[in-house]
Amino acid sequence: MTRHICYGSPNSGYSFTEFANRPFWSGAYGAISCPAGHQIYEVRWLHDPQYVRDYLRYWFRTPGAQPRNYSFWAADSAWATHLVQPHREFLVDLLPDLLENYQAWRRRQWVPEKGMFWQLGHDDGMEFDINAQQTNDILRGGQSLRPSFNAYMWADARALANIADLAGDSETAARYREEADRVKAQVQTHLWDPKRRFFFPMSNQRHEKDGHVVEKHTLTYETGRFAGSPHGRELHGYVPWAFGMPDPGFEQAWRFLMDPDYFYAPFGPTTVERRDPLFVLQPGCCWWSGQSWPFATTQTLKAMANVLQNYQQSYISRDDYVHMLHKFAVTHRKDGKPYIAEAVHPDTGSWAGHDMPNRSEHYFHSGFTDLVITGLVGVQPGDTDRLTIDPLAPETWEYFALDHLPYRGHTLAVVWDKTGERYGLGAGLHVLVNGQRAATRPTLGKLHVNLPPAVQVPLPAEVRFNYAVNNDGDWFPRLSASHVGAGSSLAYVNDGQYRYDLRPVNRWTTLGSTNDSDWLVVDLGQARPIDTIKLYLLDDGQGVVAPAGFDLEYHDGQDWKPIPAQQRQPAEPVGRRPNTAIFPVVQAARLRVVLHHGQGGRSGLTEFEAWGSGERP
Fold first, then answer.
1. How many CA atoms lie within 13 A of 573 on its CB side?
2. I want to staple 43 with a disulfide (CB 3.0 to 4.6 A). Which of 52, 163, 276, 555 is the partner?
């Protein structure tokens, strides 16, 4: 999350990027709606709720945001956030935006005769899928009523009903619950194939390609070139369970997940079943017809956990979940180091062809933390003061602990200690609330915990702004420097993001300077109340080193003056981490840092932040 945080502007606050860079199809500040649901489910667990609330608000209050360029379970994500970090006022204030977002989808993509929504595989985040390949536009063809997108819209409708209840709007709540019930019934009636025992997309248009016709309103491979094929299963057929959508009775679909003839692979699961006639492992972006995609793996593991915790079935086990989560974990590697890109070869674990330089390094298109918290450890967020813990971790494990978890205004710890010798709490499963033991059982299994009443988690009364940022191309703030090293740019110093890597580039350096010291000036355009400056100093081992020291100054209208009474952390400059100076408020329109170069190199920054208090926009 850290490397994808972007402080877009004082008005929008924090958002998150998907790619390491900001591709042309991204919205304001580099955000893309496709992974936003995964991102929000991850970020909701941070102790500081500002990040997730800013991001939720970003999608509907920021010019240039694009909440409907891709599928996005927006209302469900907002509700999921509220379950962890409750704040009624925030959520009710967001309700009109979430309602309009749902209705905008409905105006554009509702299919009245089927009572469901259509979506393209491409806009579902799944390019070159097997249905698009049966059309003359293999990238953006294949308009269909997809199990995944209809599950998102079902989840959003349910969430809107819950939020409307919070707002005291029973009429809206009832309307959206009825809509959710209708969509669910149609998905289960029309997208389930009892012969192939799976959920499939249904074409919403007639397509002809090479003399083969896919008829409108037929499921994958019911018509067309592969009519009658027993295959056609895609991993997104499991997405309905990621939201707990299906009624009991459809669980036989899970018999295919752990079978190597279908989805199972050493670094899988695959996105299409192995023996499908259109299964292909492409060496380049972005085919969802074979490669393993972390985006889809996250959804599948989420769905898998929901099935194990909430359904009766015999097709998958808790050991299977731990096995698949472990596979997902070890896939997050390249050359022995933590790494994740767009897609991975399911048989070798290689990211080759999908880890394009300066683009998809450490790609934030999936989740992991939420899978550990809600699946492995089994914390089941809800809207009451009774919490269920249902761990999927195996009882053979000697111990585990999840500590200092924020939940409904309290702090939780979930501790398993088989012998009682590890944590000193005694043998068994224990839940601590605000440091006090609240529930325990001798074996690893489902445990119910009565919590104190939920505490609303408001944002601090004091609003903090980074006044130095400029992502909107405004005249101010603007930067100048005594020297700009080759391959670097001042534009990166106040883009709201910090990264210390050589690639993707996000840096200003003084490489090539003949000076012993160099300066950077931030002109804010008008006086701002500044009390904190953060310098994200570089130290890359290739000529850029942390400075021996630095001076922080402000311009008083006549001359540069040292900022008085600075408290610095750390005391001496250190690279690859924020160097923070806190001081009494200085009203300043211009700020300057003078970097005194360290031995053996020149200085550089990946970000300059100037913080102060202000009124909430």
1. 24
2. 52
